[in-house]
Amino acid sequence: ADCSYKKPCYPGRCYGGSGCSCTPGFTGRTCLELRRQQFKPLIERINSTFTYHSFTQKRDVYNYMADATNRTAGDIVWTNQNKFNQLEFDLEAYVDTSTVFPNNPPLPSYVMETKLGIVAASVKIIHEKLRKGGRYIAKEQTLSCPGVSNGQPISDTRFKCYKKESYMIQFDSGDRYKLKYSITTGGYRKLRNTYTWSYIRTETYSGISEENSMEFWFDYDEPNHCTEDSSCSLNESPLQLQEDITKSPISPKWSGWVDKLSDIGKYVIEVWKMEYNIDYSGLREPDITTNVNPVPDYITVVLPENPIKFPTYEPKDPGVYSVIIEVNDRANNSKYARRFVIYDNTSEITISEIHRLYATSASNDSQFSWMTKFSQQVDVSWNNHFLNDVHEKGHFLAKILDYTPRLSDNISRVDYKKILEKFDDTEGVRNKTAIKNINSIVRFETRHGKVSTEIPQIGWVPVFPLRENFTFNLNGIDIEDGDSHQFWVRAFDIMGNTRVDSIVVHFDSSEPFVYEPMIDLNIKDGNYPFSSSVVVSAKDQHSGIKKVSFKFIVNETEEVRSEHTFDIQTQ
């Protein structure tokens, strides 16, 4: 075959007068072009790291790594940091010639030497910025790895390239910093004159490259809720609870959150049992101290799926719970919203045995059971008679304090976990405002009527404003001496639990009837000489006789010589 340094064909075989059949994977008129995908270098490691290094503290404050090892689509890393001063590149690649080029024939006489391997490695840096019309390239440069070239390929040994560059770059939100890596397989062949056996020239193979990329995307903007720019269309809520007064599991929901740059990465739901702070007279989440770093009663991560899988949580104990949502974008910017809920499926209203329900209009002498002066109005009081002890001791209805900002993750984000006023709870029943109550009772209702052992179902009248007394109006009710009338009071707590108590008031405005006393003078066998006895008879057909009082007076001087009161025991 007519192949020579004038008409080379390697790697390949000559045939006919001037034909050249290249080894599979090589093409071109003289087989200088590499085309087979398996000829590409094997990338064993490829990553880039942005770092902010404190030279005064002699330590890395933070860093972000993008790693495209074993990736075909590259790697994208979102960050909300805007200050870096170091950029590192780390690359390792390998070409095993016995595996990659197993079909290459022996060298013909006109080829002095040939070598294939890694001949180039570089990273192209592209800094893109965002403006109204779209993206534009603000800066572009290429950094090449030393130690390799077309005349100095590396094969059968691991090629390493590490670069550490000093960078002082200020990135803006929306910037993209792209790193495009390229590692090329190529090489050379040296030709000689087979007649003189002298070197003629060196020809280089056109290489084939393995490429990959890493990108750092910058986003400093927090997620946005549609209420902030009035773009809501379906009454979307940043956070809502199915019920904020409940005996059932807590069920938070939300909608309307967006992030234009990096998209929503996740939602985090926390549930905290609130504590009462004596100094500020209000409820708040457990505070972080030097000795205590509290954790929520419940925490879960919810992915931004469609539809979203909303969580539920059933607390172990009654209490006021704070539900906080963290809306976190892919660059780790967060915004928070908070709602409150009273959970209680066990407590009840109790009645005090010490503090009575009684008619203050009734006679004190009758233990407030009888009215001796008839009036169309009856005053009833029940101070401290009804109580929800669990709610009272837990301050369930107290005001809720502003959220104390907390958490710091680097030199620029201090106390970043905060609840903006527009995302705090001002809706529903249990919000930040204290709920008016007396002993954790939020409503009283009253009813009066004929004496009955049954609790009335209708006709209840609310006591407004909230207080522990009420004046019943008996206009239009025909009440006579000896009649009885019942007065009911019904108490409600915030959970809707009720407790009813009542009193019965009797009416008797008429005086007892007293018969003429019978005096027996100088009775025999008296306790004293010349003793006398007095017999008094009295009756009251309505309320009966409770006591009888005697008073002996000297008529001429009106001197009281003796007096005594006898309590009448009812049979």
UniProtKB/TrEMBL annotation:
Q: Which segments does the entry list as coiled coil?
A: none
Among InterPro entries, the record links this protein to: EGF (IPR000742)
Q: Which residues form the EGF-like domain?
A: 20-31
Looking up PROSITE patterns in the UniProt record yields: EGF_1, EGF_2
The molecule here is called: EGF-like domain-containing protein
